[in-house]
Amino acid sequence: MSHTLVPSDRVEHVNVYGRNGTKLGSIERLMLDKLTGTVAYAVIKTGGMLSTHHHYPIKWSALKYDPERLAYEAEATLEELQTGPCEFDGDEFDWGDRSRSYTHPNYWAV
Amino acid sequence: MSHTLVPSDRVEHVNVYGRNGTKLGSIERLMLDKLTGTVAYAVIKTGGMLSTHHHYPIKWSALKYDPERLAYEAEATLEELQTGPCEFDGDEFDWGDRSRSYTHPNYWAV
Fold it and tell me: Are B32 and A95 within 8 A, CB to CB?
């Protein structure tokens, strides 16, 4: 039976591929708006080089699940994500700061 | 700084107390609407007797985080939840079936 719902813990840790087929990483977590319970964006954690990782926000509507690959396909490439906000491991990036004036098309959908 | 966002993996496994102060259990997962990325409901897993658990849906707006207890307070009691849908461990309950005609006030907020 086809579902319209998906459990949060079945989204987390799923691999994400870019529009061009390149693996971007995996979904680290979802950032939820407390008031509305809407996903503001997902965080993609890249595979990482030398044990470091990049963390990129991507809006929910840019992610489409591919049941054959058991992975999400993102309507973006790594190059496009790199033009938006990014966090490194250990950064004290304030992911909930709405006052940031990022206008990246794949960031913040609430 | 006050945030308007909360990470999904900081919601999961957090304890939930009822309106009357009784512990209901913990948040097992969030059920998200695939299309809109909105939380349809959270699933509360009860503490369980004889190693069995009940799983109750509760809408997001009925959960309020209490930073002093590091727990959610639900606008419902266990008795109220028990009047709505419930799953036991191993049940093949279809949590995404919108055709079910539950009209419970704490179920399904999308």
Answer: no
> B22 in a domain, yes or no?
yes
- Residue A79: give the domain boundaries: 8-88
CA distance B31 to A72: 17
- Which residues from B are below 8 Å from A when comparing CB atoms? 1, 3-9, 11-12, 29-40, 43, 60-61, 65, 94-98, 109
What ipTM goes with this model?
0.88
Residue A103 placed within a domain:
no
SS3 of A42, please? strand
Interatomic CA distance for residues A26 and A12, integer angstroms:
8
**Per-residue pLDDT tens over the stretch B68-102:** 999 999 999 999 999 988 888 877 777 777 677 67
In a domain, A78, yes or no: yes
Q: Is residue B19 part of a domain?
A: yes
pTM: 0.90
